[in-house]
Amino acid sequence: MPITLKSAKQIALLREAGQLVRATFDLLRDHVRPGVTTAELDAIAEEFIRSHGAEPVYKGYVPAGRRGPSKIPPFPGTICASINDVICHGIPSKKERLRQGDVIGVDIGLRLNGWIGDACETYPVGDVDDATHHLIEVTKQCLTLGIEQARAGNTLRKIGAVIQQHAESNGFSVVREYTGHGLGRNLHEEPSVLHYDDPRNTQKIMVGMVFTIEPMVNAGKASTRLEADGWTVRTSDGQRSVQFEHTLAITEEGPIILTA
Q1: 214 annotated ligand binder
Q2: Backbone dihedral angles phi then psi of residue 205, each to the nearest 5 degrees
Q3: What is the percentage of the chain residues whose pLDDT exceeds 90?
């Protein structure tokens, strides 16, 4: 599938969707505390999104290539709720309560007026230990460094290279299997955005591109393990993982963060 470049008007509509994602995060932040279930967070997010005339795009989602009677069921939640060693795609649950010292990655995708907003934020639950705090801060820095490389004329490789270098220089590792992606009217479009250095990744960044950068940084090994539910992805060694994600649009002046 070719890369679809977006016009200034389309980018403005994508920013409206991105800002509703941001408002949903701002709302959820006050509810992330010990004792709350991930299903409760999911219900709060869904009610807020629908009350603003948008629809959750994760709910009922099945990735291309995973459809059919023998494949996994559609994703059941409005948000992905990924606690501690869950890297991504954690399913909200009435049984899963947040505990003091946890970290939870919340990924939100929605469609507003036909256009997608998508981002991820990791919240500490109360006070976290120093090692977890450092992992959170380094992952935020990885995202910032990646965004700084997202300029017309650069290759996508530069984004992945700077993320990998910063994570590994701090003793962490970067997940390989799950990447950033283009978006627009669809949740997943070209290009794929790797979070590690790959010399084959020679795609030039162009004005009008809209894509996510969403590094998943593990405290231990980069390897992953997919649960039997077909969605939940954990670290293979049980150590913690943290993710932050923004959607950005490439302009002549540089990247605009649509979900900031």
Answers
A1: yes
A2: -80, 135
A3: 95
Type of residue numbered 98: L
Query: According to the annotation, is 188 in a ligand binding site?
Result: yes
The verdict on whether residue 195 carries a ligand-binding annotation is no
Quote the CA–CA distance of 174 and 155 in Å, as a whole number: 19
| Residue 89 annotated as lining a ligand binding site | yes
Residue 228 has pLDDT above 80, yes or no: yes
Sheet (strand 173-174) strand order: 173-174, 216-218, 241-243
CATH topology of domain 8-257: Creatine Amidinohydrolase (3.90.230)
Q: What is the SS3 assignment for 218?
A: strand
Residue 61: partners with Cβ closer than 8 Å, 6 or more residues away: 74, 75, 187
Q: Where are the domains of the chain?
A: 8-257
pTM, two decimal places: 0.96
The answer to whether 127 is annotated as binding is no
